[in-house]
Backbone:
C-alpha cells in the first residue's frame, strides 16, 4: 500500500545515509515505495577528506546511472517532474560542511557539475568557512563569504543545518537566494544543540527559506520517534514560520550494514558527550510517517494547498530559485 497519494510532489531534503562508496543504494527503495519524488543524499561531511568525498560521489553516480529505470539523477528542476511522471525517484547530492573543498573554492563548481545541489557550511564543528553548532559560535569567515558567493553563482541551495547561530544568521542575511535548514527541529520543543532557535526559524522564513522537519529521534525528544512528537515539532515550525516555509528533511537512515554507533564513538569531537549521541539504538522516523503527518495537519485545519507545500512544494520553490538550470 502506498504511503502517500501519487499525484503530490513529495520532497525529502536530506537523508541520513552514512556516505561511503560501499553503501548499498538499493535502500533508496524505502523512499521510492513511499512515493517520495525527490531525495537529497549525502556524499560527504566534515569528518571526511576531499578524496573520500569524491570517491563516494563517483560511486553513487555510477550506481544511480546504472539503475536509471528506478532512479533519475536530477540536475535541473524539470528532472524532478520527469522522475515523478515516470514513477522514478529523483536524486541529487548534498555535502555537509566545507572540508570537502580541501581549501579550494574551485571545487564548488566541480561538485555542482557532478550533481551536488546543496551544501552545508559546517558539520557540528567550526571549519575554515563557518561555525558549527557544537563549537564556539562564530559568523562566516572571509573564506565562507567567498564560498557563499560562489554557491549563489553556480546554483546551489545554501543549507544552514548543523551550523552555529551566528553563521546561520550571517548566511540568511548575505545570500542572494533563500537559505534553508534542510533537517533542523525547533529547540523550543526539544533543547538539543543541533536544533535551532525561534529567531533562526523566523529569520529563515522572512527571507523566503524553508525549514525541514527532522525525524532523528534524539532531535525529536528522548529517543522519540512518535508521530505525536513529530507533529509537535511540525506545528511549532508552522506557527513560527508559516506553512509556506516548512518542509520535510527526515535525516532518515534505513537499516544498513554500516555500524553508525561505532562511527559516532570514533569521533567524540564531532558528536560530543551530553548530546544523546551515546544513546543505544537511536531511532529514525522516515517517509512512512507522512500519512500521520498529513492526518495531523488536516486535523489542525491546514488547507490542501498548505499541506502540499509542506510535503514538497515549499522546498521545490527554493530549488527553482536556487538551481542554475
Residues:
Amino acid at each position: 500500500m502506498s504511503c502517500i497519494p501519487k499525484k503530490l510532489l513529495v520532497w525529502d531534503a536530506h537523508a541520513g545515509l552514512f556516505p561511503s562508496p560501499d553503501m548499498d543504494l538499493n535502500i533508496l527503495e524505502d523512499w521510492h515505495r513511499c512515493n517520495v519524488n525527490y531525495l537529497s543524499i549525502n556524499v560527504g561531511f566534515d569528518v571526511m577528506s576531499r578524496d573520500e568525498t569524491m570517491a563516494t560521489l563517483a560511486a553513487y553516480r555510477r550506481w544511480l546511472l546504472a539503475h536509471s529505470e528506478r532512479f533519475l539523477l536530477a540536475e535541473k528542476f524539470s528532472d524532478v517532474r520527469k522522475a515523478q511522471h515516470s514513477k522514478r525517484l529523483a536524486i541529487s547530492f548534498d555535502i555537509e560542511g566545507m572540508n570537502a573543498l580541501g581549501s579550494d573554492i574551485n571545487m564548488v563548481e566541480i561538485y555542482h557539475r557532478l550533481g551536488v545541489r546543496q551544501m552545508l557550511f559546517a558539520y557540528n564543528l567550526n571549519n575554515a568557512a563557518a561555525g558549527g553548532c557544537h563549537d564556539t559560535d562564530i559568523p562566516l569567515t572571509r573564506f565562507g563569504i567567498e564560498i557563499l558567493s560562489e554557491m549563489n553563482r553556480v546554483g546551489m541551495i545554501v543549507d544552514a543545518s548543523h551550523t552555529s547561530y551566528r553563521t546561520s544568521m550571517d548566511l540568511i542575511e548575505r545570500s542572494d537566494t533563500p537559505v534553508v535548514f534542510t533537517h533542523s527541529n525547533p529547540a523550543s520543543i526539544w533543547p538539543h544543540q543541533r536544533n535551532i532557535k525561534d529567531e533562526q526559524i523566523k529569520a529563515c522564513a522572512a527571507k523566503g527559506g524553508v525549514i525541514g522537519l527532522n525525524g532523528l529521534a534524539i532531535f525529536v525528544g528522548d529517543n522519540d520517534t512518535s508521530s505525536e512528537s513529530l507533529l509537535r515539532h511540525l506545528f511549532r515550525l508552522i506557527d513560527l514560520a508559516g506553512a509556506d516555509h516548512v518542509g520535510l528533511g527526515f535525516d532518515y537512515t534505513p537499516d544498513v550494514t554500516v555500524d553508525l554507533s561505532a562511527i559516532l564513538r570514533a569521533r567524540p569531537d564531532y558528536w560530543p558527550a551530553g548530546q544523546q549521541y551515546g544513546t543505544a539504538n537511536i531511532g529514525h522516523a522516515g517517509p512512512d510517517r507522512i500519512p500521520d503527518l498529513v492526518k495531523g495537519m488536516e486535523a489542525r485545519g491546514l488547507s490542501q494547498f498548505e499541506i502540499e507545500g509542506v510535503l514538497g512544494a515549499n522546498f521545490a520553490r527554493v530549488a527553482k530559485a536556487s538551481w542554475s538550470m
In short: The first strand starts at residue 11 and ends at 12. Strands lie at 11-12, 38-45, 71-73, 89-96, 116-120, 157-159, 179-180, 211-213, 246-248. The chain has one domain: 11-322.
